[in-house]
């Protein structure tokens, strides 16, 4: 199976070709594509952001963050919608069980990690 995504200013076209004969094409608005991307990012960062300690400086949390970023770039490329990343991370943060020392409001941490992710995506685009 071969897949291809073409993203325009206000649309996305996803085409899947299964050789030798099946061709499926889906036209999505930017909003629909953003939701699909956010859901996919949510799944790709689950191994890091789905852990209650995701925001700490513990080496295991830092390693999980690196793996999550690698997975995103490997699957989605470096042109990731940073707003979709933020929304996916916020969903994880707000659904993680409360633990001692966890921030009551996640906005600052989500923004901090979104900046880190955006820096990685920018670097990957320039490579």
As laid out across the biggest beta sheet, the strand order is: 1-2-3
Give the low-pLDDT segments.
1-11
What percent of the residues sit in helical stretches (DSSP H or I)? 55-70%
The major β-sheet equals: 3 strands, antiparallel
Q: Which secondary-structure class do the elements indicate?
A: alpha+beta
> What percentage of amino acids are in beta strands?
15-25%
Please state the CA-atom Rg, rounded to the nearest Å: 16 Å
How many individual helices? 5
Number of strands: 3
> H/E series, N to C?
EEEHHHHH
Globally, the shape reads: globular
What is the overall pLDDT average? 79
Through-space gap between termini: 28 Å
Offer a concise description of the structure.
This protein has 127 residues and is of the alpha+beta class. Helices cover 56% and strands 17% of the residues. The chain has helices at residues 30-44, 46-49, 59-76, 82-95, 107-126, and strands at residues 2-7, 11-18, 22-29.
Description:
This protein is 56% helix and 17% strand. It has five helices and three strands; from the N terminus they run E-E-E-H-H-H-H-H. It has helices at 30-44, 46-49, 59-76, 82-95, 107-126, and strands spanning 2-7, 11-18, 22-29. A three-stranded antiparallel β-sheet has the order 1-2-3. Strand 1 (2-7) and strand 2 (11-18) form a beta hairpin. Helix 1 (30-44) crosses helix 4 and helix 4 (82-95) packs antiparallel against helix 5 (107-126). It starts with a strand and ends with a helix.
């Amino acid at each position: 199976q071969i897949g291809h995504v073409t993203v325009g200013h206000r649309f996305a076209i996803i085409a899947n070709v299964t050789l030798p004969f099946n061709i499926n094409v889906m036209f999505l608005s930017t909003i629909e594509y953003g939701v699909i991307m956010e859901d996919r990012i949510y799944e790709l960062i689950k191994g890091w952001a789905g852990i209650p300690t995701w925001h700490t400086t513990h080496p295991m949390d830092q390693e999980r963050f690196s793996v999550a970023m690698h997975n995103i770039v490997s699957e989605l490329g470096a042109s990731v919608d940073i707003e979709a990343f933020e929304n996916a991370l916020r969903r994880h943060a707000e659904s993680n069980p409360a633990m001692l020392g966890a921030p009551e409001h996640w906005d600052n941490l989500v923004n901090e990690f979104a900046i880190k992710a955006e820096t990685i995506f920018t670097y990957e685009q320039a490579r």
